[in-house]
Amino acid sequence: MKFRRSFRHTIPCLILLAAAMAATACGRTDSGSKPGVSRPLKIAVIPKGTTHEFWKSIHAGALQAARELGVEIIWKGPQKEDDRAQQITVVEDVISRGVDGIVLAPLDDRALIRPVQDAMRDKIPVVIVDSGLQGKDYISFVATDNYQGGVLAGRRMGSLLGGQGRILVIRYQSGSASTTERERGFLETLEREFPGLTLLAKDQYAGPTTETAYQIAENLLSRFHDADGLFCPNESSTFGALRAVQEAGLAGKIRFVGFDSSPKLVQALADGDLDGLVLQNPVKMGYLGVRTIVQYLRGETIAQLIDTGVTLVTKDNMASAEAKSLLTPDLSILDR
Questions:
Q1: Which domains does the chain have, with CATH numbers?
Q2: Which residues pair with 143 in a beta bridge?
Q3: What residues does 258 pair with on adjacent strands?
Q4: pLDDT digit string (tens) for 215-233?
Q5: β pairing state of 276-279 and 311-313
Q6: The whole model's pTM is what?
Q7: Which of 166-187 are b and which e, b meaning 16 or more Cβ less than 10 Å from the residue's Cβ?
């Protein structure tokens, strides 16, 4: 009888103990975690490259969102923006590490299709930022309206030349969806709105570095020394061509419209060596890329397409508060 009485008292205790152990094993869900997971969400942010100022701004925005939302980010990408194999390797690596989500700026709109499909198949959602990817195997696209950016550049060029003149276009590189759209917007705007402008070159590619862009621009300016205008669709091509223009003694003489920002490009704009910069908002892009994937992981509704805006900045408006925030974004978070 004593044994039976003791056993009856023991059963509730065992139940309570089992419940406590189960609660400990599951852990509490904090604000940055999946349901039933005690650790913070781990998000991989993979840029096209890691050296240009644009990607530093993307990184700053991603860090800001991560700290606000209490999640962890892994920042990793290829050093050069033409290293497709390395970017694919990075994506495969973070999949094998079991991250909760991926924010990716694909440097090739075809080559990254399969790695993204692999991630989605492994229940790792992917948000695409900056540059498009063919297909629909991702949850959201956060980017500039790149075609509209090209339109702004084309209208600026046409206005500067009064609708008459000879133009050089230095493209970026094949497979880059974002810059291809900028180039298309620029060329179609000239054709549609400024038929008096003549294209001297439109099929030359700057490549992934400022040095390759410099070499292409130097060759073109040597061949077409009487060109009236020059357009470049990203930071590295703009800076490489700027060096060539300055060394050829054409700064301030050839009308020059570029894309993106860096300290040297800002100075060139102030000096009149550049006549316009079409600016994205990479800090916002990095921020919304991380925020969107965290919202998705928490079960919130997200938009499939998020436009982060595009602005034309000239010497006349570069002192405005909006222009300053885009020309010289605050990147101090990278040092903290």
A1: 42-144+282-308 (3.40.50.2300), 146-279 (3.40.50.2300)
A2: 307
A3: 277
A4: 999 999 999 999 999 999 9
A5: antiparallel
A6: 0.87
A7: bbbbbbbbebbbbbbbbbebbb
